[in-house]
Amino acid sequence: MKNHYYNVAIIGGGISGAALFYELARYTDIDRVAIFEKYSKIAPLNSNARHNSQTLHMGDIETNYTFEKAKKVKETAKMLLNYALNSGFEDRYIFKYPKMVIGVANEVELIEKRYEKFRELYPYLKLFKREELKKIEPSLVEGRKENIVAMGALDQYCAVNFGEIAKSMIDKALTLKKGFSLYLNSEVYSIEQKGNKYMLNTPGGYFFADFVVVNAGAYSLLLAHEMGFAKELSCLPIGGSYYYAPSSLLNSKVYTVQNEKLPFAAIHGDPDISERGKTRFGPTALALPKLERYKESTYIDFLHSFNPDSKVIGVFYDLLKDHDIREYIFKNMMYEVPGIRKSLFLKEVRKIVPKITEEDLEFAKNVGGLRPQIIDKAKKKLLLGEAKIEPMKGLIFNMTPSPGATSCMGNAFKDMVSIADYLSSRIDMGLLEEELLKDPLHTLDLKTV
């Protein structure tokens, strides 16, 4: 048992699990931590750059964030930004682009009001009118008859390769602590409580830990259900697809205004950091009956985590009663149908780039991930934020929909505090504050203020 015993076991080698692994190594005196990843490499699924929005969500251009949520997102995003800058990842894994959210026609007033409120929180924000946009991002204006305005910044870090950053976090942790271990090709089949410890069943045998944190995306709820926990929650996986266009179309990360009735993000366009020379538009949003986007064998796992009953059906019924939501669901189904999808999605993209043609668009095959949307059956509604299940001491299940990748270090900090308290371990808060909580926004371009 000695070689298979750890103080902490982390399940899931994406950016969330990697952030916790790193923070435990860097900022605590905990000696033995293991991280388990079912595949042969780190960040193979949603943290992979091909499967997410590649956006550092600061809360400044996301119109679905309230002022209070934006303030929280900004603070936790700052931690990840500091980590990347401290590591020298500029122009490798984190990039500066102009970024903005556009308001078109009747959305103009909304953007102008939002700008007046949010510039208090983000001093670098500027309001760009049509004439300024012609110089910054001419493709937004060319061929457009409607009024347009944008709120954003010209010189902020906003694009991230979360997969590569996850790999760096695990590499650093393994260097910092000899008792930290990475187990690849190590799916955790089950978790059982054994006295005051937890036993993990893996292909490499049984492992024991004092504390277990599950950061396994849609599988987190499945593992919780298999232990008899959180049966009041249901997992609805939402797949997002993207379309490619020539790189000449956009030099900025451009978001559109969120329809407040819809629980999923509005589409955006930006330079793709994993496919250089291409602009990427998306994501679409389509409910899929599986836990991994490109693995058909996960249908059965979906049924267990979906846990359907009359309450789940009631949630769907309430959603489908709304005309806007019904239309949105139908359109996103059509965006996946070969032969007609490009011409249909073209209408969405033209809100950003009016003169784009169907010939400019290309469906991005095998691009886009699957995020777990949680249904609370007791409250009969979709949960739009992160879900954390803490059914007993020493055990946490995390499900982190957007902006989960951006918030990885803030979420890891919360779990690190719980772990340190449970294990009577010490956190070096001075070092953490010095490295992760300083304000990196001195990098703003004073010309834009």
Characterization of this structure:
The protein is α+β, with helices and mostly antiparallel strands and 449 residues long. It has a single domain, classed as FAD/NAD(P)-binding domain (3-Layer(bba) Sandwich), CATH 3.50.50. The chain contains twelve helices and 20 strands. The strands form three sheets. Strands 1, 2, 6, 7, 8, 9, 19 and 20 form an eight-stranded mixed beta sheet that branches. It has an eight-stranded mixed beta sheet with strand order 4-5-3-12-13-14-11-16, sandwiched between helices. A four-stranded antiparallel beta sheet has the order 15-10-17-18. Helix 1 crosses helix 11, helix 2 crosses helix 11 and helix 6 crosses helix 7. It is globular and about 70 Å long.
Secondary-structure topology with pairs:
Layout: E1 5-11, H1 15-27, E2 33-36, H2 67-86, E3 94-104, H3 108-118, E4 126-128, H4 130-136, E5 148-160, H5 162-176, E6 180-183, E7 190-194, E8 197-202, E9 205-214, H6 218-226, E10 233-239, E11 243-246, E12 253-256, E13 268-271, E14 278-282, E15 286-287, H7 299-306, H8 310-320, H9 323-334, H10 341-349, E16 362-363, E17 370-376, E18 381-383, E19 387-392, E20 395-399, H11 408-423, H12 429-436
Parallel strand pairs: 1-2, 1-9, 2-6, 3-12, 9-20
Antiparallel strand pairs: 3-5, 4-5, 7-8, 8-9, 10-15, 10-17, 11-14, 11-16, 12-13, 13-14, 17-18, 19-20
